[in-house]
Amino acid sequence: MSRHRITVVLSQAQGKHPAKRALEESIVAALLMEPGLEVSVIPHLYDLGPDHTGRRFLGSVRGDMVLLSWLFPRAAFWVLDRDGIKGQWGETQLKPPADDDEEETGEPQPAKGIGSLDVPDRTIYCLDLRDFNQHQPYVDEIRRVAEEGKVRAEAKQRERAPAPIVQLGLNLRNGDTPVADALGSPNGAPGSPNGAPGFTADQLLQAPGRRWYPVIDYSRCTNCMECIDFCLFGVYGVDEHERLNVENQDNCKKGCPACSRVCPEQAIMFPDYKTPAIAGAPIGAIGNLKIDLTKLFGGAEKDALSQAVEERDRELVADGRQAVGTAVGLPKRQEHKQEKPKDDLDNLIDALDALEL
Ligand code: SF4
Ligand code: SF4
How far apart are CA 106 and CA 91, in angstroms? Predict the structure, then answer.
C-alpha cells in the first residue's frame, strides 16, 4: 500500500556524542526500510546560517515534513518558521515516557498570538530526539504521520475539481544505501520527486558554527513590543507589517536569555538554553513538579525580572557600557506586577547554577 509522500529530516546533535549519534544512525537505518519516505540528515538546525546547504535544502522541501531534532518541538517548529520554512503545526502523538505517569496539566492553551504569515497548506511535525533512546517509537510515529497525511491528501483531492494528478512518486531507498552514506544523503538528487536540488552529503553536513539568538513563538506572541524596549543590543525590530521581528539575530549575547524572562507570553525561546521553559518546553508541561526550592536553597532564588535585569547589565558592562538596572526598558505592565512563581524546574536549575556545583 502506498503512503503519502513525506520528507523526514533528522537534525543532528551538536558535537559528536556517541549515544546520540548511535540513535540518529539507528533511526535513519530503520527509516530507509520504510516505503514512502525521503530521509535526509542535516546538522543541528538552530546553528544553520542562511547560506548553509542544510538550510537551503530545508527550504526546497515541499509537502509535509517530519523534523527530528534535539530540540523541544515548539522551538524546532519556530526556528523553521523563522527561516521561512513554514507549515501548519503537526500534532504528534509521541509522548515522552515520563508523561504517562504525570498528572495532566490541562488542555493546551488556545493560541492567542499573532501567528505566522504566509503559511502554506502543508504540515510540519517536530519530534524531540531526547524523548526515547530507541528508534522504534520514532519510526512508529512517522508511519502514523504518513498515514494521517495520506488521508488528508485524499480528502483534499476529493474536494478539488478534477485536475491532472501530479504523480509525485516516492524517492525510496529501501535498504540499498549504506546508512553511513544515507546520513547526509539528501534523497533530493536532481530530478527527484520533491524537486529538491541535489546536495552532496558533504555540503549538507558541513559543520556550522554555534549560534545564539531568540526564537519567537508567534502562536503566543501578542506583538506587545516589550522585548524591543528591554533589549538594548539592537536584536529586535519590526517588519513591514509592524510585527515583532528578530532583526539582527547575531547581535544577541551568547548564553544570555534575559528577554525571555521579560516576555509576558513565554513567546521567546532560546532553544539551546539549559532550562526547559526557556528552551521551548510545552507551556505548563513541567509546572506540576512539586519542589520546595525555598527550603532547599534558603529562598535565594530571584524573580524573573530581577534576573533579566542582572543578565542584561552583565552584558552591557561586558560591552563597555553602563549598567542601567531597572531604569531602562522595563515593561510598564510588569513593573508592579506580582511575579508569578517561576517554573519549579527552572528555579532548581538556576539555583544549582548559582551554587556553581
Ligand atoms: S515581549 Fe513577547 S509577546 Fe511581546 S512582542 Fe516580544 S515576544 Fe511578543
Ligand atoms: S538575550 Fe539579551 S541581547 Fe539577546 S535579544 Fe534578549 S535582551 Fe537582547
Answer: 16
Amino acid at 148: E
Task: Measure the CA–CA gap between 115 and 161, rounded to whole angstroms.
Answer: 30
pTM value is 0.80
Ligand 1 atom nearest to CA at 222: 3
Q: What is the mean pLDDT of the chain?
A: 81
Q: Whose CA is nearest to atom 6 of ligand 2?
A: 259
Question: Domains in the chain and their CATH numbers?
Answer: 6-204 (no CATH), 215-355 (3.30.70.20)
Q: Cβ(120)–Cβ(86) under 8 Å? A: yes
Cβ–Cβ under 8 Å, residues 127 and 91 = no
CB 259 within 8 A of CB 214: yes
Residues 6+ apart with CB under 8 A from 335: 326
Residue 236 CA: which ligand is closest?
2
Bridge partners of residue 11, in order along the sequence? 42
Give per-residue pLDDT as tens, 93-122: 998 776 554 444 455 566 689 999 999 999
